Structure formats: structure tokens, C-alpha cells
Amino acid sequence: MRKTRADAERTRDQILDAAEMTFFERGVARSSLDDIARAAGVTRGAVYWHFANKVELFLAMQDRAWLPQEDLCEQLADTPERDPLTTVADVVCDMFRRIATDESQKRVLAILLLRCEYTDEMADALRRRKDADCSLDARFGALFAAAGDRGLLHPAFTPALAQGAFRALVFGVFRRWLEAPEEMDLTTQGCAMVRAFIQVLGDAPSLKAASA
Amino acid sequence: MRKTRADAERTRDQILDAAEMTFFERGVARSSLDDIARAAGVTRGAVYWHFANKVELFLAMQDRAWLPQEDLCEQLADTPERDPLTTVADVVCDMFRRIATDESQKRVLAILLLRCEYTDEMADALRRRKDADCSLDARFGALFAAAGDRGLLHPAFTPALAQGAFRALVFGVFRRWLEAPEEMDLTTQGCAMVRAFIQVLGDAPSLKAASA
DNA sequence: CTCTTTACATACATTCATGTATGGATAATG
DNA sequence: CATTATCCATACATGAATGTATGTAAAGAG
């Protein structure tokens, strides 16, 4: 039983993996550190050596995964000067595809959205999500505003309304897939919904019949 | 200290009220029965008299409130033979309005969606939600299918796609409001998003330009 | 007016999870 | 090679939550 520091890093990762699985299966609150340690093949001593407590373990697990919001922000950072609406749809569908093929990220997001109660202790975890949401809203806001300026939006939608509805749609689709992956495929049906919505958003009748 | 059976019913309701508040504030998992009893002004003895354990208390709390899905189903049961899309929008917006004005129901739904981890113990609670979802899907499915048959749907959407997107949008809007009620008003902005979406859904260019 | 049942409060036993303290074996360091 | 720091297992102490058992005062039934 000799542990080089590379070994230590590996057990740390094993603990994080075990936390992912255990949180996903039993929920965060009902997962004891002993459950996680056992799943990782170690004892609570190892867990307490690497992490101060369950909350810090949870945060480390969250930090190891990419939040989709951060992912989207990065994608939107270097986007060419194309049609803003198509850009938005492409980026979201691309993210859907990446998440659907990454089991680990899927588990983490399922934990964050379905297996975890956000109380005062979890304030840090929640704040990170909110921050990511906020900066994402800024990027999306700019794109929808650009679409509005160029007259690309259906008159039923102001830019703000379109952004809010789009955000709700994307979240709803994603959450539904997390809840029942067997009933809905994210990359086909999910992307189809997103693209169809973007299409009708840009299908501005005002361009054809100006003031009927 | 004399308790008539009407008094007993009242303390039972007080316990349920206290459970609502406590679950909402601290989350279900972190709420002990002693917390709830204290909040209700009784002891754990009273709680254990009326409810077998925390899960049963939770289920009783859930049963006392109307799930929005059941609410919607009831509304859709006796709807006239109008435009199906407008009917759908009206019913959803009406539900939004009712929930926004009912603090208790808002709390319960926030618990169900944000403050509760669905593990194996909570299978009953989850099943009830799923059942309600299912029968709601059937009703919505019929309406969207009718809209499709009458050529009222934008060609970008099949009936099934429209239904899925609409469901995701409504859920996303609702969830966003629950998470940040101060950033978004359900009855104004939420209804606006729903109505705008329904409007562009029905804005079928195929009727004007048949085969351009 | 008895007697039983209701509707709790109180007290107790037990389990479970946590946090910490300690020990030990090896790796890293000089 | 001696020393120290790392990495983890084991053991212990504590508190919190649960479930149950018991006590009890009043209500309801006859």
C-alpha cells in the first residue's frame, strides 16, 4: 500500500466518479459519505482527506463538469457575422449533441437539476449556475436584439420576448430529456423543436405583407 | 387541553401548512419532523399521530394541492369547438393566473420542482406527476392534431413537434418564474410568451402562398 | 355516569451520519 | 539514509433524526 501523488490524484478522481454515481442514484441528500467512499473502494478517511465535507465534494464534482451555459458562452464568443437566429439555433443544437454523448456530463446535470435541493448550504453551487445563466443571457440578448434590428423577428415577438421564450423552450426541452431520456431523443427531436421555433421566429410576414 | 375531532382536523391542517413552509424554506430532505412540528406549534407526537412518516406527510401535502396538469385537464374537458390553438393558449394562461395568485400552490409547486429529490422513496409522488402529465399529453395531443388537420399549423411544425415544443416552453416559463419570481411576472410576460408562440404557430404561410 | 377511544405530549431506545483523532505505511526530500 | 510529509484506514465521540412506547386528559359512546 504505497501511494505516490499520482495515485492520490487517481483516488481523488475515483471519489469524484463515485460521488457522481451515488448522487445520481440516491440523490445528494440521501447519499452519505460512507456510501460514496464504499462506491469508490476507499473509506471515509480518504474522502475527508481530499474534501472537507459533502458540500465541498459536491462543488468539486460540479467544477469538474462544464455547465452548458458556460459551454454556450464559449461557443458564442467567436461566432461569425452570420444570421443571428441561425447562429443561436446551431450553437444550442451543437451543445445538445455534446451533452447527449457524454454520460458523465449528463449525470452531473441530472444531479444539478433533478437530484439536488438548493438550500442555504448550496448557495455557492446555485450562484455559479446563476452567474453562468446571467452571462449567457447577455450574449443571447445581443443576438436577439441584432435580429430585431434587422427586422428578422416575427412581429409577435419583441427581442426580449423572443429571448425569454427561447430560453424557456431550450430549458424545457433539456429538462424533459433528462427526466425521460427513453421518451425523447435530444439530438433529433430536441434539435428539431429548437430549429422549428427559430424558423417560425424568423418567418416574418411583415416583410411580405407590410401593412395589410 | 381538550381536542374535539374538529380540533384534530385543524391541527392536521396546521401540520400540513407547517410542512409546506418548512419544506419550501429548507428543502424536503433537510426538514426534520421536529422542525415541522415546532413550526406547527405541536410536538412530533402529533405529527406521528396524523402521518406515518415524512414521506406520507409529503404525499398528503401534495394531495392537498392541485397539480397544474390536473387543473389543465379539467379545463380542457369541457372546451367548446373553437380554434384549438387559441383554446390551448387561453387555458394555459388561465392556469398561470390562478397559480400566480395562490401562494400556497406556488409553494407546493416550488417544493415539487425545486426543493425535492426524487429517489426511490418518492416513487409514489413522482408517479402521480407522471400520470397527470400523461393524461394531459393526450388532451393536448388531440388539440394539436386537430390544428394540424385543419391546416392551422405552421409547416415547420408537425402536430407532435408543436406539442412537444409547446410543452417545453410552458414548463420552461413556469420553472423560470418559480426560480426567480422577481425577475419575471408569470401573468404578463409568461402569458405573453405563450400567446406569442401560439400565434406564430398558427401563422401558416402555406395558406397565403400555397406553393411558391 | 362509566368506559373506551381519541389526540396528543413526553420519554426512551436505536440507528445513522458526521467530524475528528489517531496510527501507520510509504513516498518525497535533503 | 534519516526525516518529514503525504495518504489513507481505523477508531472514537457526538449529535441529530427516527420510530416507538408510554402516559394522560378530554371527548364520545352507551
Automatic annotation (TrEMBL), chains A, B:
- What's the protein called, per UniProt? TetR family transcriptional regulator
Which key words tag this protein in UniProt?
DNA-binding, Repressor, Transcription, Transcription regulation
Question: Mind telling me which InterPro entries this protein's record contains?
Answer: DNA-bd_HTH_TetR-type_CS, Homeodomain-like_sf, HTH-type_TetR-like_transc_reg, HTH_TetR, Tet_transcr_reg_TetR-rel_C_sf, Tscrpt_reg_MAATS_C
Q: Which GO terms describe its molecular function?
A: DNA-binding transcription factor activity; transcription cis-regulatory region binding
Q: Which residues bind DNA?
A: 32-51
Annotated HTH tetR-type domain ranges read 9-69
Q: Does the keyword Transcription regulation apply?
A: yes
